[in-house]
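Aim 2 progress update. The chain analyzed this quarter is reproduced below.
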Amino acid sequence: MTKAILPPTDSRPARGGRGFATFDDPVSSLMVDESGAPDFVALQASPDFRELRRRITIFVVPATCAFLLWYLGYVAMSAYAPDFMGTPVYGVLNIGLMFGLLQFVTTITLTLVYARYARRKLDPQVDAVRSLTAEDQA
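Predicted structure tokens:
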């Protein structure tokens, strides 16, 4: 025995009836509480917010691990392989000094890459999450 699926009924009165038609206010899809402040619990459970967290994690975790590995490798090699780090490359420039300068290059590069990633992938998702609360998108 199968159940028939009926379409949802409209609770609005028919037009042209006697008296004034009263319509229920449409249910708001905004995630705000009674005072109009964002409902953070509902917001965190939303698919848009979960997607934002996923996009952040996709970039931040690998970038942080790679940079820490690179930095700690530099420190460990400086401590445990001083002969290698002292190998001259050009004039007074040795491998250790080169690696030290590359730390600055890596930091600047990582910052620029993150800014580009945030502008292209995170900012549109942040706007989507903000639209759930109807906050001004200044």
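The CA atoms of residues 26 and 94 lie 71 Å apart. Helices lie at 40-45, 47-80, 82-85, 95-131. These observations will guide the mutagenesis experiments scheduled for the next reporting period.
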